[in-house]
Design brief:
Blueprint (H helix, E strand, L loop, with lengths): L2 E5 L5 H10 L3 E5 L3 H9 L3 E2 L3 H5 L4 E4 L4 H8 L5 H4 L5 E4 L5 H13 L3 E4 L2 E2 L1 H7 L2 E6 L2 H11 L3 E8 L3 H29 L4 H9 L6 H6 L21 H17 L5 H15 L11 H4 L6
Parallel strand pairs: 1-2, 1-4, 2-3, 4-5, 5-6, 8-9
Antiparallel strand pairs: 7-8
Helix pairs in contact: 1-7, 9-12, 9-13, 12-13
The chain binds nicotinamide-adenine-dinucleotide.
Pfam family, one: NAD_binding_11
Family: Belongs to the HIBADH-related family.
Pathway: Amino-acid degradation
Length: 298
């Protein structure tokens, strides 16, 4: 019987572990937040009292934590994964973190004798619940093949993005492009309406023209146009502004490390920062439309 340790049972970790339990795996979980741990236990996860206890007997260790600093805290130190996982365990960090920290974890894992993958995901909470996440995996191809059977129940797509850090690099670039195109979409939604165009008609035109993009099709920020858009629901979060802000920040840090200037990403980051400064970090990132038109409907 394969045992999986899971550290971080929040918005993503909870549905991801449910899919592993439903697939027949034994999942031993830990979260600092007792309510998160209790919710996972209701789905069939076995509760551990610490990271050390969770990982002790595991064949695979997954982490799904907010940021690089949390991942470092969970992997390092006396009570951490490196000191307590058993020999031969495969370690997979699915948190979205900075490329530099991912590379540090790869190095420290190798020094401690473990195989490690950076494996962030795309698809949000709904993709996590449906088991259709896209996994972007960095590290050795052979390690991915070992982990593939346990990633499968959570995934719609699994990509070997490349060597160490390539998963995090792919995720950062992807989400940076999403934020930059979203800025174009919110500006288009405002300008088209102010020019007197009917939102549905304009959307139908752009969708089959060169203005098309994923956020245009999925997140159009005017109510009544696209069913999946947060604009239909008072901009309650489908992808929080704070997470989008974090992800663009990771791309900017990565760009800095290779000496690339990204003016569009900087602009999108500043627009997201404005939402955070105004207390809208928990709202949907498509609320960026309010920066262009404070009276925008929704
Ligand atoms: P979350 O904040 O809901 O969950 C993180 C969990 O980690 C929390 O329950 C927290 O208590 C726990 N935690 C933090 N430090 C810990 C420690 N030292 N030991 C044990 N538990 C600890 O976040 P989330 O939405 O589940 O996101 C997790 C990661 O996935 C983030 O990196 C995020 O960027 C990424 N991600 C999120 C989404 C999304 O739509 N929510 C989509 C794709 C990727």
């Amino acid at each position: 019987m394969t045992t999986i340790a899971w550290i971080g049972l929040g918005n993503m970790g909870k549905p991801m572990t449910k899919n592993l339990v439903d697939a027949g795996f034994t999942v031993v979980g830990f979260d600092l937040n007792e309510a998160a741990l209790a919710a996972a236990v209701e789905n069939g996860v076995t509760a551990a009292r610490s990271t050390a206890e969770a990982v002790g007997d595991a064949d695979f260790v997954f982490t799904m934590l907010p940021k690089g600093e949390h991942a470092l805290a969970v992997y390092r130190g006396e009570g951490g994964v490196f000191a307590n996982a058993r020999s031969g365990a495969v370690l997979v960090d699915s948190s979205t973190i900075d490329v530099d920290t991912a590379n540090e974890l790869h190095e420290e894992a190798a020094q401690a004798g473990f195989e490690f993958l950076d494996a962030p995901v795309s698809g949000g909470i709904s993709g996590a619940a449906a088991g259709t996440l896209t996994f972007m995996v960095g590290g050795e191809a052979e390690t991915l093949e070992k982990a593939r059977p346990v990633i499968d129940p959570m995934a719609g797509n699994i990509f070997h993005a490349g060597g160490n850090g390539a998963g995090q690099a792919s995720k950062a670039v992807n989400n940076m492009m999403l934020a930059v195109s979203l800025q174009g979409v919110v500006e288009g939604a405002v300008l088209s309406r102010k020019l007197g165009l009917d939102p549905k008609t304009f959307h139908s035109i752009a969708k089959v023209s060169s203005g098309d993009s994923w956020p245009l099709r999925t997140w159009y920020p005017t109510p009544g146009v696209v069913e999946t858009a947060a604009a239909n629901n008072g901009f309650a979060s489908t992808f929080a502004a704070a997470l989008a802000h974090k992800d663009v920040g990771l791309a900017l840090a990565a760009a800095d490390s290779v000496g690339v200037d990204l003016p569009g990403a900087k602009l999108a980051y500043a627009q997201l920062q404005k939402l955070l400064d105004e207390g809208y970090g928990d709202m949907d990132c498509t609320l960026m439309i309010r920066n262009v038109d404070p009276e925008a409907p929704g």
